[in-house]
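Co-fold these.
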Amino acid sequence: MTMDRRTVLGLGGAVAAGVALAPGLHLIAAPATSTGNTSPESASRPGKRWAMLIDTTRCSADCTACLTACRTENNVPVFGDPDRDIHWIRKVELRDRNLRQPPISLPVLCNHCENPPCVHVCPTEASFIRHDGIVQIDKHRCIGCRYCIIACPYKARSLVFYKTKPRADANHAVPIRAAGVVEKCTFCAHRLDEGKLPACVEACAKADKGAMIFGDINDPNSEISQRLLKEKTQTIRADLGLKPHVHYKGI
Amino acid sequence: MLSEFSAIEGRSPGYWKLVAGLGVLVLMGAGSFLYVEHHGHAVTGMNNQIVWGLPHVFAISLLVMASGALNMGSMSTVFAVKQFEQFGRFSAFLSIALLIGGLAVLMLDLGRPDAMLLPMIHMNFRSMFTWNVFLYTGFMTLCLLYLWTMFEYKQYKKFVGTAAFGWRLVLTTGTGSIFGVIQGREVFGSAITAPTFVAVSLTSGTALGILLLAYTYRMTRRELDDRLIFGMRNAMIFFLVLVAYLLVVEKFTRFYDPASVAVQTWILTGPWAWLYWLGVWGAGVLIPLGLLFNRTIGNSVSGVLMASGYVVVGAFCFVAHTLLAGQSYPFDLFPGYTITSAFQDGMAGTYMPTLSELLLGLGGVGISGLIYLFGIRFFRMLPAKGEVPKGWEVPWNP
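Predicted complex below.
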């Protein structure tokens, strides 16, 4: 079979037009999901808005209980490659450039912003916000484009650079790790759904630090709501207007 | 019509050597893709601070040049510059070829390339990437239609060509906005980024067009009137001045803001300053302008070709600098404090590309090159003889 030039160009145009239009068409309507302030998570609880308060005056540089608990709970491996290791939560040390204050040690994690730029830029809606404000990543939808890592001002996201296999003692309550997709702190959503606190908060309390307070800021009587009302706190990069939900005291 | 369009013969050893060379690039790119796919992105030079590396630089450079390659077509169809009408087909086809090469690299560098069709099914219409999916596919559709009208339905050429011209401006605005809309990283987030991308696409697309036309005509032993090259040279000079203007305005506005002085000083003197000064300004603007304004070099075809080569390299450096310097600058989470952590907080990101990334990027160049070579062989893309219309002279010479 031979095709003349007109047919070839016409077919080319038709294919390109099809590719251009196909994304807007749906053969079967999918259940309504969205990237906005709603989510398909049935387990999430509407009406709640989880947030964290970190009291840096109670956090010491030599304590990494929250980091260890997070790695254990969420099966976060250590590759031994500092540039490519996955950090859901990390300890940072702040030093006043004029050395007027002693160094401050504090954990930094996903801020579960109300206006998260990562969700905004994600092309496939893999990043989304649950009813309770937790920013989540659907690993099956993430294509590994890394635009969210570019957009996040907190360096809260990590790409999984290495292929891993689940260890025998892994926590099966969290999804297994997939190479090539992006992941980050989930506020231990699986634990919250069971009525437990995030692993880092629990470990901090067990270590007798009590530097991490977690709760529902939509409940005016919760400890976190009361303390945010009474104490002087701040969020990281408040200037960006992202409304982060990890608050810090003592900076 | 000045001269009949004809496909090149494509039987010479030179042609097949070129096809073989580009074919090898494509094969090596494919091998490199499989290697990265098998081992994960750990075998690349990318890390959690620099997540877009050399493949993105290749891909975005090709996409920027794809939109710029439409210049010659637009100049004749939209702005009635008659001497470029004969290169309209070449121009639209080159755009398609470059677009496919660039998109291929972009797709194959995904963390999950097996899921590359997901953006077609699940779309977030607030994402700049999603908009770009429509912009790329729409541009390709318009270029194909434009090509079709140039071949068969000349009465619609003006309409489709004008639509393609408008689309290419929006397309490159979209490409530049991938960085321009990001407020979380100090180096990105500027409204002027997108117009600068458009200007760079104008210079680099014209430069690549000049290079390909000159070498295609030379290697096929066809005639190409030097005055056509000089006409394009003049357009390129104008575009180069435009790039210089936008680069200066960007730095001026940034330096005027006291909060940005530290970031901008870092750009001009930090670890990527060499790329900015030598690549973006040197190769991308000053050297070509110097060559083209020189009375001897600027008036010789080989001089214009040399300048065009610099412009293409400069565009590549511009994209590389935007990406790599933009990602390297340390996150300033707590202004006024020095910050340290086990996750390189407070440190500039480092990036050393690996061979696999280079080969993947070159694979995209190979794809574009092969499409071009097959296109000019199987379709009547180019006039048998590149002539100037009667009575037309180059309006200005250095």
